[in-house]
């Protein structure tokens, strides 16, 4: 466990890591040989970063909101409870779920690299991997959250959880008001990736029914 969030935009002076450079070199080689379509690759990354992975986590969150027994299991043993959905495997061997409440707001970071719960959130966003986010979240979590559009009252405690290779974290966001009559499936549509990282809250549905 630790402290909080950082900059939304990557540090423009940041030098890419050696693995990142190798991946980029391999990608360039495959594109040059005509084996990979860059546009198709971008679509694939976009799909797994924003849709497929986060939809898994959203199902978990929605179930916890409507099923108190499941929520209890989730907070007691995130790995086992999430596996009930069939979400497991690499980057998800040890998952701890932390709950946001009106008094406590949790946020996730990985200060050493970019450990991330892939089975429930998909690919990590670029800003999550940036050195700016990783360092500033620990030093000034409230400031980082504010820059990302989330201003928390002074009386709300901010807890920062530092993921690593042995343990990764997922935030269980607060259920927004006005959703008491919504189905589990509709609730899942409200849940965003950023809310499960802790840099945003789940927005209440707009009047008229739409999310």
Shape: globular
Percent range of helical residues? 40-55%
Helices and strands, in N-to-C order?
HHHHEEHHHHEEHH
Name of the CATH first level: Alpha Beta
Tell me which CATH architecture applies here.
Alpha-Beta Complex
Rg calculated over all Cα atoms: 18 Å
| CATH domain fold name | Nitrile Hydratase, Chain A
| Coarse structural class | mainly alpha
The strand order across the widest sheet is 1-4
Question: How would you describe what is shown here?
Answer:
This protein has 211 residues and is mainly α. The chain is built from 10 helices and 4 strands. The strands form 2 sheets. Strands 1-4 form a two-stranded parallel ribbon.
Task: Give a quick precis of the structure.
This protein has 211 residues and is mostly helical.
Q: What order do the helices and strands come in, and which of them pair?
A:
Elements: H1 18-32, H2 38-66, H3 68-76, H4 78-83, E1 95-99, E2 104-109, H5 118-121, H6 126-129, H7 131-139, H8 141-147, E3 157-162, E4 168-172, H9 184-190, H10 193-197
Parallel strand pairs: 1-4, 2-3
Which properties best describe this structure?
single chain; 211 residues; mainly alpha; 4 strands; disordered N terminus
